[in-house]
Design brief:
Arginase, Chain A, 30% helix, 318 residues, 10 strands, two-stranded antiparallel sheet, alpha/beta
């Protein structure tokens, strides 16, 4: 290698090699997880009520994440004067995907739950790449044997439908299923706006079951610090991010785009504040459907947001 000037070995540039998340190590043995963060794909999209395609979300996010794998020893943020994800101390692994059985929601969800339970048993933080938002249901189910969590949702839609046409585990149901758990102590639902998939009685039910609901306009009027003040401090947070919480001008690759969404920095500042206010113990990012965005803006947004969020979670834990 020295003949080519590569004194330190292979370059491993972003466009080369296998697309694991952030080019972190692949760990196929779920009984040998030794990491602070474990990434699990949940390529399930049978819960959608309109456009499908989020089954390709995990693959798309992984590929986009290689853009941020230049190998500088970490991710230096000059505004914070912090190097996030320092190479010498960052332990992240990619577990691959949960097995999905086409048309079988119950078994597919069970397989996702199995993976998240393995991550929690190993003492790592699960970061789940969806998939449609119904994958949050097995993710939250997996937390039944650990300490309670407060759920923070970024989304255009409330997702609080109890039952529709006999369906209770689609992508319109996850926040209702979460609110029913005694180990989910409350919900903060941010970005909810405009023509919603949940009727008025769903909003009333959500508030009666402990939800604090804010639209994007209400978020902007209050400001990020005031919004953070509404979230119980010092708690364990599970964060679920629907990419349609962001404006379709920057995230068109999703099944149910809704105009009037967040910008990148609004989302990042909220997530950054959460890592300082309490302990983030689980994350999912859902509804990325790459085929609706040939420019790759949506997958890049998802990958960039997750890597920055993970970096802040680990830094503020230390």
């Amino acid at each position: 290698m020295s003949a080519h000037g590569y004194e330190t070995g292979r370059l491993n540039l972003p466009f080369v090699g296998i697309s694991t998340f952030g080019k972190y190590p692949y760990q196929p043995d779920w009984d040998a997880i030794e990491a602070d963060v474990a990434v699990l794909g949940a390529p399930f999209d049978f819960g959608t009520q309109f456009r499908a395609g989020a089954r390709f979300g995990p693959r798309g996010i992984r590929e986009a994440s290689t853009l941020f794998s230049f190998g500088h020893g970490g991710a230096y943020d000059h505004e914070d004067d912090i190097t996030y994800l320092p190479a010498e101390t960052t332990r992240i692994v990619d577990l691959g995907d949960a097995d999905i059985v086409h048309t079988d929601t119950a078994q597919s969800h069970a397989n996702i739950e199995f993976g998240v339970r393995k991550i929690l048993k190993a003492g790592a933080i699960p970061v789940v790449l969806g998939g449609d938002h119904s994958v949050n249901i097995p993710c939250i189910n997996a937390f039944s044997e650990v300490e309670p969590v407060h759920l923070v949702q970024i989304d255009a839609h409330l997702d609080f439908v109890d039952e529709r046409h006999g369906v209770r585990s689609g992508h319109g149901n996850p926040m209702r299923r979460a609110a029913e758990k005694d180990y989910v102590t409350g919900l903060t639902q941010i970005g909810i706006r405009n023509v919603s998939s949940t009727a008025r009685e769903g909003y009333e039910a959500a508030r009666s079951m402990g939800s604090d609901i804010l639209s994007v306009r209400q978020f902007r009027k209050l400001g990020v610090e005031a919004v953070l003040e509404r979230i119980p401090a010092g708690k364990r947070y599970y964060v679920t991010i629907d990419i349609d919480g962001f404006d379709p001008s920057i995230a068109p690759g999703t099944g149910t785009p809704s105009h009037g969404g967040f910008t990148y920095y609004e989302g990042l500042e909220l997530l950054d504040g959460l890592t300082k206010r309490g302990k983030v113990v689980g994350v999912d990012l859902v509804e990325v459907a790459p085929d609706y965005d040939h420019a790759g803006c949506t997958t890049t947004l998802a990958a960039q947001l997750l890597l920055n969020f993970i970096g802040r979670i680990l830094h503020h834990r230390r």
